[in-house]
């Protein structure tokens, strides 16, 4: 039998969000709005800057796709959260339909998965650039970049559809209250009636494909890069090669670190309010850091941004 709270939302869930903190909600709304606008502006600026470059090297094409993914990634979660924070109150939470929750989770996983695969593709690009510089132009062609970009998106989409179908086939009984501000996988698994470890197998399988497989490719690429750098005699060459990898490594550690901590752990260790706080960081702060990292570390991006903004001295950056 459904509980009374379930009868009022027979085909959906309640997103608790931050309704239990009415005094903090106005401040949280303003902070999230400012961060969201800064994230949108930063990623849009990178997209426009890359498009404005007459001849775009492959790495800029990958950065363009990364910014597009981050742009969509934040749009899946943040606008709904801001709308809920701006409401005077919804009792225990904000209602979301069963289908709406499934679509939000599927899009969130698809974009996060596409980014996992894209970071692996970018690591391969760095490997070819450093280990095979003379053959770089013939190996990493625009056609290969397009195929890798499509494969990243299709891979993330395929895993997300399978995971969403598996999660939403679980029985949800009793209270439908999600102690979260969006339909996250761990929150939905925690709400499922069953307590069997079998329920976690789809999530573990998705983590295996989206986290373990790309991370092994990234580690292999950087292992070969490290071996090549040790063979370099000049310190300047090592510093230049390391500088080209620094921004990619920073983004990789942020993305994989957050994803691993959030999803690669047993269901019994799930803490709803702690996970909600951590999710607030990785859905708002990390998408803001990515364009900052690349705009500060990548010379082509910096020069292109200066041209778009009409600043002088872009060629010396």
Automatic annotation (TrEMBL):
Keywords: Cell membrane, G-protein coupled receptor, Glycoprotein, Membrane, Olfaction, Receptor, Sensory transduction, Transducer, Transmembrane, Transmembrane helix. Pfam families: 7tm_4. Residues 42-294 form the G-protein coupled receptors family 1 profile domain. One of its GO terms (molecular function) is olfactory receptor activity. It is found in: Cell membrane. One of its GO terms (cellular component) is plasma membrane. PROSITE patterns: G_PROTEIN_RECEP_F1_1, G_PROTEIN_RECEP_F1_2. The chain crosses the membrane at residues 27-53, 59-78, 98-124, 144-170, 203-229, 241-264, 276-296. It is a multi-pass membrane protein. SUPFAM superfamilies: Family A G protein-coupled receptor-like. It comes from the Eukaryota. Belongs to the G-protein coupled receptor 1 family. This is Olfactory receptor. The gene is LOC100752918.
């Amino acid at each position: 039998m459904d509980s009374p709270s379930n009868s009022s939302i027979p085909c959906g869930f309640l997103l608790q969000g931050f309704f239990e903190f009415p005094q903090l909600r106005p401040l949280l709304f303003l902070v999230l709005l400012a961060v969201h606008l800064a994230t949108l502006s930063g990623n849009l600026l990178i997209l426009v800057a890359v498009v404005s470059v007459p001849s775009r090297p492959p790495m800029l094409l990958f950065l363009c796709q990364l910014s597009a993914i981050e742009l969509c990634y934040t749009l899946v979660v943040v606008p709904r959260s801001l709308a809920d924070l701006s409401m005077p109150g919804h009792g225990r939470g904000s209602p979301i339909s069963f289908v709406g929750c499934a679509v939000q989770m599927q899009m969130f996983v698809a974009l996060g998965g596409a980014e996992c695969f894209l970071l692996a593709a970018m690591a391969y690009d760095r490997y070819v650039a450093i280990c095979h510089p003379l053959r770089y132009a013939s190996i990493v062609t625009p056609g290969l970049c397009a195929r890798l970009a499509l494969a990243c998106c299709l891979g993330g989409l395929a895993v997300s559809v399978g995971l969403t179908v598996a999660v939403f086939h679980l029985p949800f009984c009793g209270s439908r209250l999600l102690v979260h501000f969006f339909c996250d996988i761990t929150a939905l698994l925690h709400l499922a009636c069953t307590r069997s470890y079998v329920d976690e197998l789809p999530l573990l399988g998705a983590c295996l494909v989206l986290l373990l497989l790309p991370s092994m490719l990234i580690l292999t690429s950087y292992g070969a890069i490290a071996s090549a750098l040790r063979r370099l005699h000049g310190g300047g060459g090592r510093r230049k090669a390391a500088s080209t990898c620094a921004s990619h490594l920073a983004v990789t550690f942020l993305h994989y670190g957050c994803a691993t901590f959030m999803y690669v752990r047993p269901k019994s260790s799930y803490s709803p309010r702690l996970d909600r706080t951590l999710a607030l960081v990785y859905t708002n702060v990390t998408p803001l850091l990515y364009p900052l990292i690349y705009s500060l570390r990548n010379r082509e991006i910096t020069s292109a941004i200066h041209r778009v903004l009409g600043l002088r001295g872009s060629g010396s950056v």
